[in-house]
Design brief:
This protein has about 120 residues and is of the alpha+beta class. The chain contains one helix and four strands. The chain has a single domain, classed as 2-Layer Sandwich (Pantoate--beta-alanine Ligase, Chain: A,domain 2).
Length: about 120
């Protein structure tokens, strides 16, 4: 059997593995919490973007409604509104400015508002 020499440990070497383990755990935990924060903010941004697209679609529906009323029902100026089946809504204002007709539609979906304006 080979002779195994015992290594005398000094006080400085005790707990080095524990210290190293704690440091690695701290770095991994900090990385995890940072990644979690980024993911949560991205989820919120995605939700807001979805609401924004729905509000834009509501504004577009309002412009389409205005064009229909102007061309088919002889609508010249005023304000009207409508509600969509998805919960979005729009408010349209049509005004005459000289020889131009201007229609501005504001679409709302949850906490997002988007507007469109046409002139012809």
């Amino acid at each position: 059997m080979p002779n195994i020499e015992k290594i005398k440990k000094t006080g400085k070497e005790r707990g080095a593995a524990l210290y190293l383990t704690m440091m690695i755990l701290a770095v991994v935990s900090a990385s995890f919490f940072t990644l979690t924060g980024v993911l949560v903010s991205q989820i919120k941004i995605t939700g807001n973007l979805s609401n924004s697209v729905m509000a834009f679609a509501a504004a577009d529906a309002g412009i389409e409604d205005a064009l229909y009323k102007i061309r088919r029902q002889d609508y010249s100026s005023g304000t009207f509104s409508g509600t969509l089946s998805n919960g979005g809504s729009y408010t349209v204002t049509v005004v005459l400015q000289g020889s131009l007709t201007v229609a501005r539609s504001v679409g709302v979906y949850q906490n997002s508002r988007r507007a469109l304006e046409i002139q012809f």
